[in-house]
Amino acid sequence: MDLKQIRCVLAAAEEMHFGRAARSLDMLPAGLGRQIRLLEEELGIALFARTTRSVVLTDAGRDFVRDARPLVDAADGMVERFRDRGRTVSRVIRLGAIDSAAAGLVPALIHDLHAIDPGLTIQLTEEKSIRLVPKLLSGRLDLAIIRPGAKPVPGLCTRFLLHETAVVALPASHALGNGAVVSISALADVAMIIPERRSRPHSHDLTMKLFEEEGLAPRIAQVAEEKQTILNMVSAGIGAAIVPMWSTRLGVTNVVFRRLEGHPMRGAERLPLAVAWQAHVRDANRDLLLGLLQTNLDRYAVQG
């Protein structure tokens, strides 16, 4: 018996669904089921009664969950006490951020942190939200700046920060770049490069929604996953793209950025940004950065 197997049982007992339990642990359902079966075989008892439609705890399973939960909590507490001691000594904050936040918000945040505590170091990991969340849950990151999901993630605290303004990225030679703003209707016949939805659902859905609200559909020339790749395609003249304002800092040549025509505070023209961290984990260094982020949020928001 090991802690991984026990965590699988507790997650399944919490969700009463192997698929949802597996997602909460960043596992495949088959892997979670195998861990539970191995534990049941070792104990010689069934912890769950399974049918094709449902999963329920047996009497033994309920007793196991009752006794196992304090053990896991105690183990997590011990790990965090020693991890907190190590962080205090190392003076390193492991920060994750999506690409636009890494280009726009994080440099100002690091500058402000060093102004009040020069000895505290930021170790930055730049990834998409779908890759940052598992790293937070596994303890490989202390906090991350992400696009928040539609539902809360079990085990994480999430705090909304701001909305990034969306802008249009155009090849520098494109006629629409001559104006200060660009309307969605003006993009009706323009080839568009859109983000791949699985990895960038907010950005993908934003583009589709903006066109839909005008009774239009984008003329999709290319789908790409990475923001840098999207802007490089714009630079090559393949098409235009709707991107966050902070993407203007990624330094791609032969690209111009124009605001979308319309009210600047319209919700459809915004991309949500949030900060997330592990719930029930104490970390003085992380809390210092969270406090600094909250204190200066209005100033950061103006830049995005």
Automatic annotation (TrEMBL):
What is the superkingdom listed in this entry's lineage?
A: Bacteria
Gene Ontology MF term list: DNA binding; DNA-binding transcription factor activity
InterPro entries, per the entry: LysR_HTH_N, LysR_subst-bd, WH-like_DNA-bd_sf, WH_DNA-bd_sf
Q: Which GO terms describe its cellular component?
A: protein-DNA complex
Signal sequence residues = none
Transmembrane domains' residue ranges: none
- Please provide the record's keywords in A-Z order: DNA-binding, Transcription, Transcription regulation
Q: Which CDD domains match?
A: PBP2_LTTR_aromatics_like (cd08414)
Q: Where is each HTH lysR-type domain found?
A: 1-58
Q: Which family, according to UniProt?
A: Belongs to the LysR transcriptional regulatory family.
The entry's protein name is: DNA-binding transcriptional LysR family regulator
